[in-house]
């Protein structure tokens, strides 16, 4: 079974062409856990590029986190899936439709490395949520926002006074993303599924620095597409940012979030960033 390695702004995936093979859903989960534990310790997830459920669409992305969990959108994975399908000739046009989970996303191939993914309206946005959490045996309060853009996200802007106290006035470079992220990821306010956790710092103008703890990967990743989208939305709704919002992730790449905001209504939402192949291979012993 052949595979390719793709990176979406530092989010790294194994992509398998499942058009000809037809690996079943039950086999996909088992294969994901096996590959990530035995062969790809640094990979963030496995993507199966498949035939769409609906003929009006062009390709389907079936994405699994490292732990085999399924059911959430992956923004960086969608860009990689789109580029994979385009470069393999599965799709012979630069504008097409991609299925993922239960939604449809518009794709625009900008060039050989850049893809723009158009998102549907967010399923839910709640800003200014006060939550209590125990850090180092002390109960503290933070102000966070919550977004469901196909994946569930908490966004915490570290420059707010209440959040400075929550994080002991640490800069984004010194925050314990894995430790604090794990506490918030399993917070009772966001149970039972939990949420990804984004730590955002306004740098200047329209630029935000972002670090993300990803659910299912259960560690910080170099980028998270739906986290970037969620942070961009909150920045426009609550921080006075105008579209597009530029967000710099841990890999060093700056991605662009665009949206049309009318009161609290969000439309024409999109994420633009890189999708680059960095390897390939063949898996021979699957048993």
Task: Give structural notes.
- By secondary structure, this protein is α+β, with helices and mostly antiparallel strands.
- It has 2 domains: 2-119 and 275-282, Diaminopimelate Epimerase, Chain A, domain 1; 124-271, Diaminopimelate Epimerase, Chain A, domain 1, CATH 3.10.310.
- Helices cover 21% and strands 44% of the residues.
- The chain has 6 helices and 17 strands.
- It has helices at residues 18-21, 25-38, 75-87, 161-166, 177-185, 225-238, and strands at residues 2-8, 11-17, 45-50, 59-65, 95-100, 103-109, 114-119, 124-135, 138-148, 152-157, 196-204, 207-214, 219-221, 245-248, 254-262, 265-274, 276-282.
- The protein has a 17-stranded mixed beta sheet that branches.
- Strand 4, helix 3 and strand 5 (95-100) form a beta-alpha-beta unit.
- It starts with a strand and ends in a 5-residue tail after the last strand.
- The mean pLDDT is 95.
How many beta strands in the DSSP annotation?
A: 17
CATH topology of the largest domain: Diaminopimelate Epimerase, Chain A, domain 1
| Radius of gyration using CA atoms only | 18 Å
In terms of DSSP E residues, the strand content is: 35-45%
Gap between N and C termini:
12 Å
Structural class: alpha+beta
């Amino acid at each position: 079974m052949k595979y390719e390695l793709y990176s979406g702004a530092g989010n790294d995936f194994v992509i398998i062409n499942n058009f000809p093979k037809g690996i079943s859903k039950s086999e996909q989960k088992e294969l994901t856990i096996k590959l990530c534990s035995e062969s790809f310790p640094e990979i963030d997830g496995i993507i199966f590029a498949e035939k769409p459920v609906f003929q009006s669409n062009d390709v389907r992305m079936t994405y699994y986190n490292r732990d085999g969990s399924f059911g959430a959108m992956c923004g960086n994975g969608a860009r990689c899936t789109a580029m994979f399908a385009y470069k393999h000739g599965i799709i012979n046009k630069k504008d097409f439709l991609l299925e993922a989970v239960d939604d449809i996303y518009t794709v625009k191939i900008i060039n050989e490395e850049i893809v723009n993914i158009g998102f549907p309206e967010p399923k839910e946005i709640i800003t200014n949520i006060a939550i209590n959490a125990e850090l180092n045996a002390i109960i503290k309060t933070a102000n966070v926002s919550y977004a469901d853009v196909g994946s569930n996200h908490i966004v915490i802007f570290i420059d707010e006074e209440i959040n400075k106290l929550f994080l002991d006035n640490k800069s984004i470079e010194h925050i314990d993303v894995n430790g604090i992220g794990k506490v918030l990821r399993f917070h009772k306010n966001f149970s039972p599924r939990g949420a990804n956790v984004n730590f955002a710092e306004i740098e200047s103008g329209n630029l935000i620095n972002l670090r993300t703890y990803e659910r299912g990967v259960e560690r910080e990743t170099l980028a998270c597409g739906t986290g970037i989208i969620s942070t961009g939305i909150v920045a426009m709704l609550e921080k006075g940012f105008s579209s597009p919002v530029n967000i710099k992730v841990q890999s060093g790449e700056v991605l662009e979030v665009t949206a049309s905001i009318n009161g609290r209504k969000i439309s024409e939402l999109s994420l633009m960033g890189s999708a680059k192949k960095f390897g390939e291979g063949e898996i021979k012993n699957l048993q």
